[in-house]
Design a protein that fits this description.
Layout (H helix, E strand, L loop, with lengths): L10 E12 L2 E13 L4 E5 L6 H8 L7 E6 L2 E2 L7 E5 L10 H11 L3 H23 L15 H13 L5 E5 L7 H18 L2 E5 L3 H7 L2 E6 L4 E7 L14 H17 L8
Parallel strand pairs: 3-8, 3-9, 6-7, 7-8
Antiparallel strand pairs: 1-2, 1-4, 4-5, 9-10
Helix pairs in contact: 2-3, 2-4, 4-5
The protein binds adenosine-5'-triphosphate.
């Protein structure tokens, strides 16, 4: 019988250590960390403040270089080949002088291979593509509005569109729903889930919200601080599409409680206050 080759991870951290600062003022943000993320996966990183979640995002996107160890994307060391990345943060940072359509269109103007065709396709295909995506996230009819005319939830929807419009191989989400009220946040989980189901990008989500991690991710990696390490890697077994109602089910609540206990145990002790 022919042997089946093992599936190759799309992103791999091998014994990665990252230290910020120099001389006697250094912080080991990440210590000998291993992580494998497969194509089309949705991985959430959770853990106490300062455990190195954002550092992992920066390493995977090549914004910083590991002090030691290897960061591989698509089987090659990061930086060897350009990788298309989409990002969304807590603050949607839209350009105020551009309409929603033009804000979402920006990556097509900047990122290869799209930028080469930008002028030619701008009025046609690219514009339709932006409109279709805005429609999918419930922003149909708002493309001519300016950022100041929209609510925080609407801007975050647009920010997800901007992160996805250029079909990124990797989607990095750094607490994208952290500044929204609970209802808007839950609505946006649904939007994000629909986008993931229809496009299957490889996603890494950093969040402090354990319910959000369990709603959205296929895998949840729990980290500890000082030094930053992954101490637990959980498959999330719940069927998709997930709903807010499911977050009250016993299995869902047990999972988030277990994660919470792990994080509390992994948090550095609070300094005593006089
Ligand atoms: N540019 C930097 N210079 C020095 N130290 C840094 C720098 N960036 C991060 N750190 C430190 O590295 C550690 C990990 O930071 P990182 O931002 O990755 O953590 P995090 O888990 O994303 O934190 P949070 O949940 O609070 O956003 C922290 O102790 C932080 O203070």
């Amino acid at each position: 019988m022919a042997e089946v080759a093992p599936r190759q991870p799309f992103v791999q951290l091998q014994e990665v250590t990252h230290t910020y600062g120099r001389l006697n003022r250094t912080v080991t943000a990440l210590d000998k960390t291993d992580l494998k993320i497969f194509e089309g996966d949705f991985v959430a990183l959770v853990g106490p403040s300062g455990c190195g979640k954002s550092t992992i995002l920066k390493l995977i996107t090549g914004l910083i270089t590991a002090s030691s160890g290897y960061v591989l994307v698509a089987g090659r060391e990061i930086g060897a080949e350009p990788v298309r990345v989409g990002m969304a943060f807590q603050n949607p940072t839209m350009l105020p002088w551009l309409t929603l359509r033009d804000n979402v269109m920006l990556p097509l103007k900047i990122v290869p291979p799209f930028r080469k065709d930008y002028r030619r396709k701008r009025k046609g295909e690219y514009r339709d593509r932006v409109e279709a995506l805005l429609e999918q996230v419930g922003l149909g009819g708002f493309s001519d509005k300016y950022p100041w005319q929209l609510s925080g939830g609407m801007l975050q929807r647009a920010s997800l569109c901007r992160a996805l419009i250029h079909e990124p191989q990797l989607l990095m989400l750094d607490e994208p729903f952290g500044a929204l009220d609970q209802f808007t946040r839950e609505e946006l989980w649904g939007v994000m889930q629909d986008l993931w189901i229809s496009r299957k990008p490889t996603v890494v989500l950093v969040t402090h919200d354990l319910k959000e991690a369990a709603y959205l991710a296929n895998r949840i990696c729990v980290m500890q601080a000082r030094p930053g390490r992954i101490i637990d890697d959980n498959e999330v077994p719940f069927a998709r599409p997930r709903t807010v109602a499911m977050t009250y089910d016993t299995d869902f609540v047990s999972l988030t409680q277990r994660l919470r206990e792990l994080i509390v145990a992994a948090s550095p002790p609070k300094e005593a206050t006089p």
